[in-house]
Recover the amino acids of this structure.
């Protein structure tokens, strides 16, 4: 049985006494055991990162960027292996794993332009013979804590930019599917990142709490559920750190009566059921304006759900794999039962699905609710499974009110042929990422990713331009070289423009 350890100061170590099972969700069989780092192990990783910082900070940005070019090559060369790890531990279908990895690689490509991104701001002659400029210096040791649902991509949102900016890093991946993040970090070292600059500790709350409170850690990036994100933000900020904590979501699609309903239904299928609904940008609610459009959409969704192929992620014919764990399957199934009890109409029931040859897997078929109302738990809570709720309203304003009143504000989209309505929606909806006839408006790597309300605690978004600012601190320098024959008296007031 394989034991998954840590990567500390360039070495693979597996010394902790506590371990946890890593399960293949398609079979519920044991894949490996992962070490759960003790406080002392995490402190060793932080010490390695701190020791590596002065030399790494002094490496010119162009040389740090060249390592990122090599990392991109290595990620592409090892794509099949990484995607296999993703599918075996997370369960997502191989094509989806490829898409996840591609999005991660795009972040590395953006980081390759680091010298350009780190260019400061310069002003000549802000006063007589006085010049002023701002530069962006690294912070020191940074930490990243990542969720199970994007085991390769979310770590790649964080450490390539942090490290390229001159910081050193300790990553704590999800203990449920840790292998891809560890393997990719190893590729980082192979690309030329020196020992100690990038470290990986596997673990649970004990590891996280150590990262959150150790005074040597300057900044923490977190992605996960909202209750944990709130805790991370409060604890990290109280310990004086810079923190960005990305939380959960409940993403709505607004379907206008004039929308191309065939395209909208196809888009909703991928957005609601792709990756078994375990995406923070998954569409889990469709708010439809008008009874006629709602009836037509439900019919089209029913037809498409009937053709959806659910099964083992390694079979490329499948559209949707299993849920991450049997406990999560039970939780999502419980929400389907609760929706029926609350009075919503269960149009397609995915419960009880058994996949031939994978009878023990955590499978749930696509489920579809109609006539869901605000106040029902299936609308209020993030279910994080293949459950799509349809809500019926009479006007666009009522639909926007439902979306704006929801506690989460990660992503949303509108399907319409009306440009004026689309523009009004984008201007006034209280959500961080908006799609217009685009169901999953995940920003590309050269924009930044982030939600509003309970979906993000902190100010700066992930990756893209915001991440350059998150992983650096501004220093502004004002310089004057007075001529040696000029003698000036003391001044006791602000210098005025003479
Ligand atoms: P999670 O909150 O359970 O775990 C995330 C990380 O926090 C893991 O590394 C875990 O070990 C650690 N953790 C868990 N409980 C902790 C505790 N009590 N104290 C300290 N650390 C703890 O999230 P998950 O189930 O792995 O991921 C799914 C969630 O992540 C969903 O809510 C999803 O919406 C969210 N998510 C959000 C985004 C985003 O960008 N907003 C992206 C991906 C996932």
């Amino acid at each position: 049985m394989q034991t998954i350890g840590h990567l500390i100061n360039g070495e693979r170590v597996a010394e902790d006494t506590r371990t946890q099972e890593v399960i293949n969700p398609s079979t519920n069989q044991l894949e490996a055991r992962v070490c759960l780092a003790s406080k002392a192990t995490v402190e060793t990783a932080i010490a390695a990162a701190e020791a590596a910082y002065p030399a790494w900070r002094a490496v010119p940005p162009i040389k740090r960027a060249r390592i990122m070019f090599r990392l991109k090559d290595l990620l592409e060369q090892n794509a099949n292996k990484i995607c296999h790890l993703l599918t075996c531990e997370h369960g997502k279908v191989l094509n989806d794993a490829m898409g996840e990895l591609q999005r991660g690689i795009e972040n590395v490509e953006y980081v390759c332009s680091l010298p350009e991104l780190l260019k400061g701001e310069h002003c000549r002659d802000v006063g007589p013979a006085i010049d002023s400029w701002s530069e962006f210096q690294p912070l020191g040791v940074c930490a990243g804590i990542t969720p199970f649902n994007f085991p390769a991509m979310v770590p790649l949102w964080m450490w390539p930019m942090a490290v390229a900016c001159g910081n050193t890093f300790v990553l704590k991946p999800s203990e449920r599917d840790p292998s891809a993040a560890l393997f990719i970090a190893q590729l980082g070292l192979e690309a030329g990142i020196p020992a100690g600059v990038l470290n990986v500790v596997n673990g649970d709350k004990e590891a996280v709490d150590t990262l959150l409170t150790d005074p040597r850690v300057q900044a923490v990036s977190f992605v996960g559920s909202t209750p944990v994100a709130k805790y991370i933000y409060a604890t990290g900020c109280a310990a004086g750190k810079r923190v960005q904590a990305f939380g959960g979501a409940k993403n709505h699609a607004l379907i206008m009566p004039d929308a191309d309903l065939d395209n909208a239904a196809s888009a909703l299928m991928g957005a609601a059921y792709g990756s078994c609904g375990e995406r923070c940008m998954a569409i889990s609610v469709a708010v439809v304006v008008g009874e006629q459009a709602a009836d037509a959409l439900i019919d089209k969704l029913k037809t498409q759900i009937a053709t959806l192929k659910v099964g083992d992620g390694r079979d490329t014919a499948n559209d949707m794999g299993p849920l991450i764990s049997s406990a999560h399957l039970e939780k999502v199934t419980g929400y389907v039962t609760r929706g029926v009890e609350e009075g919503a109409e269960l149009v397609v029931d995915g419960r009880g699905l058994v996949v031939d040859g994978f009878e023990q897997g955590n499978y749930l078929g696509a489920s579809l609710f109609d006539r869901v109302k605000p106040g029902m738990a299936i609308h209020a809570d993030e279910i994080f499974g293949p459950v799509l709720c349809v809500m019926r309203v009479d006007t666009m304003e009522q639909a926007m009110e439902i979306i704006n009143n929801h506690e989460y504000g990660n992503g949303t989209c509108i399907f319409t042929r009306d440009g004026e309505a689309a523009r009004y929606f984008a201007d006034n909806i209280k959500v961080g990422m908006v799609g217009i006839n685009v169901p999953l408006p995940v920003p590309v790597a050269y924009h930044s990713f982030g939600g509003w309300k309970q979906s993000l605690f902190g100010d700066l978004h992930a990756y893209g331009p915001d991440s350059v600012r998150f992983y650096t601190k501004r220093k502004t320098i004002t310089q004057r070289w007075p001529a040696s024959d000029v003698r000036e008296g003391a001044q006791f007031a602000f210098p005025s423009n003479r």
